[in-house]
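User: Please go through the entry that follows and flag anything odd:
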Amino acid sequence: MIISNKNNNSDHNNNNNNNNHVSHSHAGRYDFAKLEEFELRVSESKLHLLQTEIFFLGYLIKDGQRFPAPDKISALHNWHSPTVKKDWLKFIGYVNWLHHFILDCAKLLKPLYDYVATFVPKQKPPPVPEAVASNFEKLKLALANSVGLKLFDPAVPTLIMTDASDLGIGGFIAQKLDKLWYPIAFISKSFTPTQRNYSTLQRELLGAYNHLQ
């Protein structure tokens, strides 16, 4: 399923895009004027102006895109295959936090969820299935090779691509800039047992709904 908002009046589709925005310096002066108007103060030690890149909540923001912070990628690269349930859940949680960077993340994680569900308290961990070991490495590689995700701009055309299977949904959100489409986020989700009984149309609409959220 494809959902697209076409903005025929947008000037973002030409090379003069930046000329239609207030410059950073003008925006800065406006912000400081507002701070003064409401008698607010900022800490000089925490104020950073005209930065080409920033780190925010585990992400690297630069060139209008967000990336996983290098230390997050490094930690994942050095992550050894877990041996106990607690460590498997920790890895799954780590990947879920960065799932927007991975196409079909839910599909890749499903064997790991199924494997964790077979653990029995106070018993020896079950052997790691080949599919689990394989997807563990695929997830690490997918994040290591992840592309930057464009920051969402409500003023430019947006495309939502979704696909639903019997087990879940997958797709992505993209925006058009200078005649090219750039990914905003990859989205995937496994169906609940009830949702698996939905009709094909219902599953497709559920996929679109989840992407719009």
About this structure: Confidence is low (pLDDT under 50) at residues 9-17. DSSP finds six helices and eight strands in the chain. Residues 130-144 form the longest helix (15 residues). The radius of gyration is 22 Å.
